[in-house]
Amino acid sequence: MSKILFINCYDDMMLALRTMSAQLERDGHEVHLLALRHLEDCFTPCVPPVMHPVYNYSLQTTQKELDHVMTLFEEIDPDWVGFSVTSNHIGLIIHIGRLFKEAKPGIPIVWGGADVWFNAEDDIRYADILVLSEADSIINDLAKAIDGDKDLKEVPGIWYKDRHGEVHKNPKLPPFEDLESVPYGNWSLERFHEVSADQLFRHGYHPYSMVGQGFRTVMTARGCPFTCSFCCNGYEREEVNFSRLGRQRTVEHVIAEIKHLLKTSPGTDVIYFSDEVFPMNRRWVEEFADAYRREIGLAFSCYAYPTTVKPWFAEALARMGECYVQMGVQTGSDRLNRDVFHRFATQQDAINAGRILAEHGISYAVDLIGYNPMETEEDSRATLDLLLKMPRPFIFQAAYELMFWRNFPITDKAFERGLPLRQINEHTWLSEPRKDYRFWHAMWVIAGTCKSMSRELAYSFVENPAYRENPELLHQLMQDMQLMNFTRTPTGNWQHKDRHIRDLENYYYRMEGSRAVKTYFNAKERVAELVETGSRIAKEVLSFPFNRKAKNGADGHSPTEELAPIFAQHQSEMAARKAEHEGLGASTGVSPALVMAEGITATRGTNGTSMAKSDTRKKFQYPKATQVRVGRAQGDVKREEPHTSD
Ligand code: B12
Ligand code: SF4
Question: Is 116 in the pocket of ligand 1 (CB under 6 A)?
Fold first, then answer.
């Protein structure tokens, strides 16, 4: 049996690693989890966070933090290390891998995660084993093989280097179907640590951690029917799209997991459904809403796509309890959404969705993508218009900085078009800094945050050249406005102040004799027990008999099968819109963005939806890693130089 160290950067939810840890511990392995850096420390390593930051390249760490990582590494003395790799963090991960190898020569380094799906040919230079598929069905065999009890060539879905450095490529696995055979994630603190803000939080979390404050991640399904060009689901072809296929767990199984969390993970008080898009299957959602209200009743948050928000959907969510919906809107420009982002939801769809959510009293947040070299002045204005029209109240979540990840559809096309990008690590690029990106970022936040901004007032800013020249003036205003309107909740989220006060009032009213109070005292007792009896109880908690129901629900229906026609319906609706837009686009002449969309959408699949041309990804030769340079976005808060590739 091995000692294993799993590491994730900038995310302490780390659902994949928690699930694998539970799987491996069932076989007697000792798995330690390390979250390296909290997202809050994204670009302010040691000082309080900036409000609504542009999500920047969260790729740095500090020497002190690296020292903590090495201290843990030496204490744990793992037999092998597993990294979950997203492209943003690849430089950091390569660096840490090298430190581990120096400290313990020959230690196997295993990589899995989104970056590996897209960049295996490159990633194999840095890892001994790559997991190119979902690891659920193979992780235990992989551990056996690393222990020498099995041959690595018998483990599908991986690439590995042999003793002579030769790379062996085992066949890939299809998307993992039997979601209910996987144990619930391991949320125990016994072997969990977080390193962030220059500190080592042993068996605990960064103070702003949502997990530390009671958030627990649950996925009811895997996959998404949409194909946004900036997302891992952007290619419709199955060999490049790993999560698109819709796979849905039963209502009973999800509810059982949440109940298990409530019993075993003290302090759980918000459920974060991290499904790419919250289920769209009406029967499932309705049934789930009833069960959730009846048996759980906790506040929750989930993601929605503008076209999936229907009145029945909002009614069901509202029925479940206190709810926070995050809706990616990306832009108010139909052209940009359609031609560049490959999203076929219109501005009107976003407004309709907002109206439906607001009418049902659901808090919702919108987020956008900015800093985009394919965005025109007209597009930026359309986003401003959208924000001015969006039904209130809503929370302006962020204007994310468009990231171009290696081998993602939007990146291929940006390179083919010769757009100027700056490379920030081996697999990530950003646009060149421009004043107008900063200007529009601030304009959107102000329009999204200010409750009563008229169109006239907004456009007086837009028409004033002084702000274009000095966008930092607007950024100051933006930050002051946010400070006046928002407060940080104990869960680390930004929330509108009025709303927060109302929530607190409600909370105190409900406290008397409430379930929350009971849960609190139960949890306290449980913690006291855990402290008293130490790891024996913790082991009991870990070996809790998992609910391993068959894939079908109690009445024999299969939610995955039911999901398929709903996915198909969404896809064909999007395809119809696409066809309609393509017709319109053709008559408007040739825009660079339209040219860019070509190739992403060139052939048609058997189900009538468009398919990416099989050669699309092969055309462009990516710059080599030696060309890496580390840039700094204009207006960023001063931070330490990242320790990336060298
Ligand atoms: C939910 C989610 C989040 C949540 C929670 C993340 C979490 N890990 O729990 C939050 C909001 C915190 C988040 C944050 C971010 N996310 Co995110 N997120 C997702 C999402 C929608 C689902 C991830 C998930 O939990 N899947 C379910 C689990 C079971 O599957 P999995 O993670 O893929 O893991 C399986 C395999 O990949 C493999 N595996 C994965 N890791 C490892 C490690 C080892 C050792 C092994 C053996 C196997 C293995 O086995 C796992 C089990 O089957 C994905 C999209 C997607 N389809 O995956 C994006 C995605 C992973 N996120 C992405 C990004 C960029 C981010 C951020 C960097 C955003 C930002 N700019 O700050 C941050 C930081 C993320 C981080 N370090 O992981 C990108 C990554 C793109 C890329 N090229 O790398 C994705 C792919 C979305 C996209 N745009 O395409 N994210
Ligand atoms: S809706 Fe979300 S998860 Fe689905 S393809 Fe678009 S960005 Fe990706």
Answer: no
